[in-house]
Amino acid sequence: MDKLCKQVESSSKYYEFQYNTRIVKPSILHFQLRNLLWATSKHDVYFMSNSTVGHWSSLSHKMTDVLDFSGHVAPAKKHPGCALEGFTGVQVSTLAVNEGLLVAGGFQGELVCKSLGERDVKFCTRTTLSDNAITNAMDIHRSTSGSLRITVSNNDSGVREFDMERFQLLNHFRFNWPVNHTSVSPDKKLLAVVGDDRDALLVDSRNGKVTSTLV
Q1: How far apart, in whole angstroms, are the C-alpha atoms of residue 91 and residue 17?
Q2: Residue 9 covered by a domain
Q3: For this UniProt entry, which residues form the secretion signal (predicted)?
Q4: Is 1 within a domain?
C-alpha cells in the first residue's frame, strides 16, 4: 500500500476548520433512507428538517424554508398525469436537488417537483398504487438531447423515468426485487440498478433489458 499511496507530510495542513452551526438540524424518518442532504455548490446545502425542505448558505449563515410538507402541497399548473389535488402530510423518504430542480419522494409513492427559482410546486404525481410504494431514490440528469430527466427507484420493484420538460412518464422498467437506487451512466446508455438482491444489474436505458450482472 505504501507504493500505491502518495506519500505526504504528516504535519501538513489539508483542511482548516471554518465554521460550525447548530441552527441546521437535518432529520431522518427511516434509518435506511438517508438520501436527504444535497450540496448544489460549495456554499449551498438542501436538507430535510422534520417536514420541511430547508436551504442553508455557508456564505450568509442563513437558513430558509424551501418547501413545507406539513400541510397541503399541490401543483400550480395542470399537466398530463399530474395529481392536481396534490397531497397532504407527505412523509419524505428521499430528496434530490440538481439542475435547478428539487424533487421529493414519499413513503406512499408520492413525487413532488419544484424549481428552485420559483415559489409554486410544478408537478405532483403518485408513481405507484402498490402497498409497497416507498420512493427509495431519485437521480436528476440530462438526456443525450439535453432535456431534463429524473429516474425514480421504488419499493414496488419498479424504475421509472420522467421527462421534466413535459412532465411525462417515459419509461417503466420492472424487476424481481425492490429497487433501492438507480444511477445513470455518463453516456446515458446504461442504468446501474441495485436493490434487495446480492447482484447489481447494468440495464439498457432505452428498453430496460439487462446487459450485464455484477455479482
Answers
A1: 35
A2: no
A3: none
A4: no
pLDDT of 94 > 90? The answer is: yes
Q: Is residue 157 part of a domain?
A: yes
Q: What are phi and psi of 158, to 5 degrees?
A: -115, 150
Provide the domain limits for residue 100.
37-214
52 residue type, one letter: T
Label residue 23 by pLDDT band (50, 70, 90).
confident
pLDDT for 24: 87
**Cα 171 to Cα 186: distance, rounded to the nearest angstrom:** 19
User: Which CATH number covers residue 83?
Assistant: 2.130.10.10
pLDDT value for 193: 97
